[in-house]
Design brief:
- The complex is a heterodimer.
- By secondary structure, chain A is an alpha/beta fold.
- Helix content of chain A is 20%, strand content 35%.
- Chain A contains eight helices and 27 strands.
- The N and C termini of chain A lie far apart (57 Å).
- Chain B folds into two domains: 46 residues, Single Sheet (N-terminal domain of TfIIb); 62 residues, CPE0013-like fold (Roll).
- Helices cover 18% and strands 36% of the residues of chain B.
- In chain B, the strands form three sheets. A five-stranded mixed sheet of chain B has the order 8-5-6-10-9.
- In chain B, a hairpin with a 5-residue loop joins strand 2 and strand 3.
- The mean pLDDT of chain B is 93.
- The chains are: A alpha/beta, B alpha+beta.
- The complex binds flavin-adenine dinucleotide and iron/sulfur cluster.
- Flavin-adenine dinucleotide binds next to helix 1, strand 6, strand 9, helix 3 and helix 4 of chain A.
């Protein structure tokens, strides 16, 4: 059986940053297994700029951001196997992977980093009647057609969902000569960045219809149009507001789901809100020696944060490996981090009381809030409080808890919440 | 003339109200809560620029297209003219990261550069 100190599953920005960090921390034998033909993950198709502002202080395109890490990897002896799919994780951290040259392989790992990314919510996840005509696809699929395969999937387009990928594709397809009729958003606000609303929709003259959804698709072989309708505050279509819109393509940008099939197969405990693993401050999952980072752990909108999170996981895996696979004795020494009133989820969900650094807790809020405060409490004690002008579900936030404060906590539970 | 816009320099997204005179010069900016908002309003009203990204056809590469960007932001009003030039360009593989594929596109003084390899 092949043996490695660290096996990284997925060669997107998360996997690459984690592997590089683990190497920097002194881990010897590292391999990255990537299902696609190249490293870079989803960034290869995200050709617009806006990546790296936080991490590199420069505005890069997706492929340029990935390229910097690919070049760093080339300078190391970290092994990479592309076109290789991991199919199972057995007990004792044995990985089953397969590709055309090696066939089915079993790899013994001391530690594993899960970095499989996420995928888009498909049509099946929506409750939308109509035939299965061609021309209905996720915005990310269209992004791949246009930016990698070099062809346009349609001419007259309606986009459902105002997530960033949908907004980016509205501009991209308009620039390529398509007519984007409108972007419909179920919620009363957009889930995308304001910058994308301005530069992708306003610049291109594309209307954004809030509290509006597609209730039916028309066409037998090829999509011919959709019926849209306004929705009430319970997000149910309001009868009488239906309107027919002619189009040959419907793009769905209705959310991302972490790709956690392997994680589930490995018996790792999943957080029902993030749909990613429950982790500690070093991103270790409920299975000793298995770590998770990037979009497989929580859906990120900024790749810069993916990189930061993955470096934490890389460092955590290195500590685990270099200490001889010692399992941190968590059970009674663990501080649980809870999300409450307005805070939808937190990552990490657990913090080891004897940790060795300040811990940043990342979170998302449930709604748009103005002039509120983010508060972290332990029992009756307030250990952190900061005013915020504006919080929105589209932007990931974080609070930093000081190492000294962690050691002093009076209880084994802290709560992150909003105070109006 | 009064123009309304959202500042996108940071996630707060202040609503800006900009007062312009007949020569399209900014007289006042209201609604911003920091200096960057004022600068944004002036730039947007006098010389709005954008980064343009797209793909260029490649002959003999692994993939049929290579992603490109303008090396610097270009005037917002020139985006579609530039797209036409980009769409009429075909280059031969191999393409390296940062290769200049079109120089001085539409007399903007800005080059189109490759943002990946092929
Ligand atoms: C369509 C789309 C568009 C996006 N656009 C933007 C954007 O414009 N700006 C932005 O900042 N962020 C964007 N994101 C978010 C983006 O995903 C993250 O910024 C970043 O790419 C996440 O990195 P990652 O490494 O976690 O995941 P990914 O980049 O998705 O990489 C995961 C990798 O794991 C591989 N993999 C999965 N399962 C297996 C397996 N079983 N075996 C082997 N390999 C496997 C995949 O092939 C993939 O290469 C977008 C996401 C999507 C889905
Ligand atoms: S004016 Fe300042 S605070 Fe307001 S959105 Fe612009 S940069 Fe942010």
């Amino acid at each position: 059986m092949l043996k490695y100190d660290l096996v990284v599953i997925g060669g997107g920005p998360a996997g690459m940053a984690a592997a590089l960090k683990a190497r920097e921390c002194g881990v010897q034998k590292i391999i990255i297994l990537e299902r696609a033909a190249t490293l870079g993950g989803i960034l290869e198709q995200c050709i617009h700029t806006g990546f790296g502002l936080h991490y590199f202080g420069e505005e890069l395109s997706g492929p340029e951001y990935a390229y910097r890490f690919i070049e760093e990897l080339k300078k190391t002896d970290i092994e990479v196997k592309v076109d290789t799919m991991v199919t199972d994780i057995l007990p004792d951290n044995v990985i089953v992977a397969t590709n055309n040259t090696d066939g089915v392989m079993q790899i013994q790992a001391t530690a594993i980093i899960l970095a499989m990314g996420c995928r888009e919510r498909p049509r099946g996840a929506l409750d939308m009647p109509g035939s299965r005509a061609a021309g209905v696809m996720t915005a990310g699929t269209a992004q791949k057609y246009v930016n990698i395969d070099g062809y346009m999937p349609g001419k007259k387009i309606v986009i459902l969902g105002s997530g960033d990928i949908g907004l980016i594709m509205a501009r991209r397809m308009t620039l390529e000569g398509a007519k984007v009729e409108m972007v419909c958003e179920l919620m009363p606000y957009s889930g995308g960045l304001t910058r994308n609303i301005v530069q992708c929709l306003d610049d291109m003259g594309i209307p954004l219809k809030l509290s509006c959804t597609v209730v039916k698709t028309h066409g037998l072989e090829r999509l011919e149009g959709v019926t849209i309708a306004n929705v009430d505050e319970n997000r149910r279509p309001i009868p009488g507001t239906e309107q027919y819109v002619e189009c040959d393509t419907l793009l769905l940008s209705v959310g991302l789901i972490p790709e956690n099939e392997l994680t589930r197969m490995a018996g790792i405990v999943i957080d029902p809100i993030t749909s990613g693993a429950i982790v500690d401050e070093y991103r270790q999952t409920s299975r000793p020696g298995i770590f998770a980072c990037g979009n497989v752990l929580q859906v990120h909108d900024l790749v810069d944060y993916v990189t930061q999170e993955s470096q934490i996981a890389g460092e955590g895996a290195a500590k685990y490996i270099l200490s001889g696979g010692k399992n941190n004795e968590y059970a009674e020494n663990t501080i649980r981090v809870k999300a409450e009133s307005g805070v939808r989820y937190v990552v990490p969900q657990n913090i080891n009381r004897s940790t060795d650094k300040d811990v940043k807790i990342y979170f998302r809020v449930a709604d748009v809030y103005k002039d509120t405060s983010v508060v972290v409490t332990c029992g009756d004690e307030v250990i952190y409080k900061r005013k915020k002008r504006k919080l929105a579900p589209g932007e990931m936030e974080n609070v930093a808890i000081k190492l000294d404060d962690i050691a002093k906590l009076s209880e084994n539970e802290i709560t992150v919440k909003l105070e109006v | 003339m009064i123009k309304e816009m959202v500042c996108v320099s940071c996630p707060i997204g202040c609503m800006l109200t900009v007062e312009l005179n007949d020569n399209n010069e900014v007289i006042s900016v209201k609604g911003n809560t920091c200096k960057r908002g004022e600068q944004y309003a002036v730039d947007e009203c006098t010389n709005p620029v954008r980064m343009l990204t797209s793909t260029v056809r490649v002959n003999g590469g692994v993939l049929p297209v290579v992603p490109v960007k303008t090396a610097k932001p270009i005037p917002k009003g020139k985006m579609f003219d530039c797209m036409e030039v980009i769409n009429n360009t075909v280059v031969d593989a191999p393409i390296r990261m940062g290769d200049v594929l079109i120089t001085n596109i539409c007399d903007t003084g800005v080059d189109i550069v490759a943002t990946n390899e092929d």
